[in-house]
């Protein structure tokens, strides 16, 4: 062990003539640990929110969506679909027909975005149908039953869990779906309506989808909207979701004029920008805790220099250089910071792991879009937080170590 480090460690372990110095040193360690732990937990939460929202968004929606610029839908879409499936980096494609509707059951009702799908294709571009917790989405795969004896079979529908609670609907119940795209009659525009049987209820944990999304067969949606053999979008899944914008441009070029694409990054750019800003602001605010702990280190070392003035003079009279005295107190402050940082990292990562594993902090999904507080600690965060903690603490040791190096042995020992 180097001479300076040996003396610094001895000074930390030695009994104090003034108990307040030891108390302030302990507070310094606790302060650094608290600041580091708070930073690790806060960064784990913001990373977890970003990761969880991204996974849910990407899993629940397509990576790229193609639509008509004129918003009049796509007719004769099957050849186009087969051609676009061959675009490089496209792994799956699925047609869909969106429409705003009112779903009601008895006196209860709620607005919804219904999507007509081909289930086998839809499952390749999104995971909402796989999130069915009650009933089953397999009924959507059955073919529509033709009219018989003047009656049409009630078609199936899968709705979100929060929408089901709003309607008071369960699997097997019948709901009335009303479309504003009605029929023109002598009495005016009459909305179209159709009864559906709830065959499944999905719960993705993402409030936007659970509260307003519903799925039915493409043919049933086309019949509801009086749009035979029409689709409004083609959804795509790509092999690299971070290159969705580039693949989207290739899809646009292949589709030709009159088409445009959007991707998951464009649809959620403001959300992720807000999360990034929140992470930066949180880091800055909580880093102030480390700065306060660094002030404690400065005070503790300053008082220790005053207490050890006689010892410093004796050491310098034995030939210890001023640079070595400076390093002794620099190392002493660094040891305080290292101990606090290590303790803070252990506490922060332990709490983050527990929070991520047991999910014991629940949230209101209507407000936060997710129903629990996610934690995602990263190794890079530990490196950044440790570097900030050690750097701030090292700055705090400059003044007291410099004061120690300026001690004059003759003056310090004059009255000894």
UniProtKB/TrEMBL annotation:
InterPro entries: ABC3_permease_C, Lipoprotein-release_system, MacB_PCD. Belongs to the ABC-4 integral membrane protein family. LolC/E subfamily. It is a multi-pass membrane protein. The keyword Lipoprotein applies. Residues 284-406 form the ABC3 transporter permease C-terminal domain. GO terms for biological process: lipoprotein localization to outer membrane. Residues 25-253 form the MacB-like periplasmic core domain. The lineage of its organism: Bacteria, Pseudomonadati, Acidobacteriota, Terriglobia, Terriglobales. The chain crosses the membrane at residues 20-45, 280-306, 327-351, 379-399. It is found in: Cell membrane. It holds the Pfam family FtsX. Keywords: Cell membrane, Lipoprotein, Membrane, Transmembrane, Transmembrane helix. This is Lipoprotein-releasing system permease protein. It comes from the Bacteria. GO terms for cellular component: plasma membrane protein complex.
